[in-house]
Amino acid sequence: MTTLILENITKQFGHYCAAQEISFSVDKGEFVTLLGPSGCGKSTLLKMIAGFLQPDSGKIVLNGKCLNNVPPEKRNTAMCFQSYALFPHLNVAHNICFGLKQRGLSSKEQQPRLLEALKQVDLEHHRLKMPAQLSGGQQQRVALARAMITRPDVVLFDEPLSNLDAKLRESVRFEIKELQRQYQLASIYVTHDQTEALAMSDKIVVLNSGHIAQIGSPEDIYYRPKNRFVADFIGAANIHKAHITPSDQLSYYFVSCELGEFYVKSPTPPTAEYCYICWRPEDAQYIAEPTSNYNLFALTLQKMAFLGNLTEAWGSNDSNSISVRLQLIKRPQADIGSRVYFHLPEEAIHFLEPISEVEHELAQ
Ligand SMILES: Nc1ncnc2c1ncn2[C@@H]1O[C@H](COP(=O)(O)OP(=O)(O)OP(=O)(O)O)[C@@H](O)[C@H]1O
Ligand SMILES: [Mg+2]
User: Fold this and answer.
1) Ligand 1 atom closest to Cα of 40?
2) Which residue has the CA at smallest separation from atom 2 of ligand 1?
3) What are the distances in angstroms from CA 343 to CA 3, 183, 287, 335?
4) Closest Cα to atom 6, ligand 1: which residue?
5) 265: helix, strand or coil
6) How far is Cα of residue 265 from the mean position of the Cα atoms in its chain?
7) CB under 6 Å to ligand 1: residues?
8) Which one of 3.40.50.2300, 2.40.160.40, 2.40.50.140, 3.30.420.40 gives the CATH number of domain 244-363?
9) Helix or strand run (H / E) with residue 228
10) How far apart are CA 340 and CA 314, in angstroms?
């Protein structure tokens, strides 16, 4: 069932390690996204899978066969780039059929596939146009059709939407997903856009400076980040150093941090007695008139931004001069500078990595 496996892939450029022991797999029909900041090694990984770069060590296995010594043209992979990379001297139809021609299919064999592909990307009326006569979105759809028409085992997308405007991105994003689902293609999609990654992926591989920071479903990555890098890179997060003690009740803990004391329910235990914790801005509930102190923290409101469906707010805690970010469904009826109260539900706090001894000592 598994289509592609990367096993301990390492690639060094001079002193910089662009890929460090990278292992993950992509099943047939699975949409896997490589997400991470610029320079973290996303394109390097795609190039190694496509065969344009050789790993220093590790194995790339496609349908049970090791690809390491297989040249790019013999790997059944297709690549779709940010700069559509269409052949300027070929019209839309010829661009789309390029891979079929290379594989030796006759014009007669190419025709039905071409018609189907043109229909899928809604370019039937543009088949005779040259790339220069198309808009950016149309060019990207030609590139998409060209990548998919050969029915590759794996499609590799390198930031294919980053040249498109926001509206077009959304519609091409749906087209990519629909084509991928229809043909049950194993896909690896590179982006540094977290929204795109969350919306499209079955699995996200978060990369940081050449190594894997976390692998998981979009829900895992967003709701159960494993470390500060993931928590901070995907969505907004409030991160604090904390002291954690288990309670008498299974899966419940006492957490003490700069915001106060909290009772936390977590199916996974903390990584250490002293570790980082995080919570999402939307998890804090504004309490107009608190009736108990339970899981409550108080802040002095610093600024508020009304965004229609929600309000973003920042506040500080006087004793520790910290600032937290909140996302409130209801705008607090309070002025800047006034004291407001928020409740953090028991399941809102997540445990991240341990605080290193050095950091711990510095904080004392
Ligand atoms: N051929 C090369 N020679 C030397 N260094 C390289 C080479 N290719 C990439 N690098 C370096 O490896 C690192 C990873 O590059 P890569 O292109 O994979 O990043 P990326 O995650 O795709 O970034 P971006 O989001 O900006 O496209 C970068 O520091 C880059 O400078
Ligand atoms: Mg790149």
Assistant:
1) 21
2) 13
3) 46, 47, 7, 19
4) 13
5) strand
6) 26
7) 13, 16, 18, 36, 38-44, 192
8) 2.40.50.140
9) helix 228-233
10) 11
Task: Give the Å distance between the CA of 68 and the centre of ligand 2.
Answer: 21
Task: Determine the 3-state secondary structure of 360 from DSSP.
Answer: helix
Q: What is the pLDDT along the chain (364 residues), one digit of tens a residue?
A: 668 999 999 999 999 999 999 999 999 999 999 999 999 999 999 999 999 999 999 999 999 999 999 999 888 898 887 766 789 999 999 999 998 998 889 999 999 999 998 988 889 999 999 999 998 888 888 998 898 888 889 999 998 887 777 877 888 888 888 888 888 899 999 998 898 999 999 999 999 999 999 999 999 999 999 999 999 999 889 999 999 999 999 999 999 999 999 999 999 999 999 999 999 999 999 898 889 889 999 999 888 888 887 788 888 887 667 888 888 877 777 888 889 899 999 999 999 999 987 666 655 5
User: For the chain, what are the domain ranges?
Assistant: 2-228, 244-363
For ligand 1, pick from 40, 79, 163 the residue to mutate: most ligand atoms within 8 Å of CB.
40
C-alpha of residue 44 to centroid of ligand 1, in Å: 6
**Angle, helix 136-148 to helix 107-120, in steps of 10 degrees:** 130
The top-level CATH class assigned to 2-228 is: alpha beta
Residue 86 CA to ligand 2 centre (angstroms): 18
Q: What is the per-residue pLDDT for 216?
A: 97
The 3-state DSSP composition of the chain as helix, strand, coil percent (nearest 5) reads 30, 35, 35
The ligand that comes nearest to the alpha carbon of residue 38 is: 1
- The ligand minimizing its distance to the Cα of 20 is 1
How close is the Cα of 43 to the center of ligand 2, in Å?
4
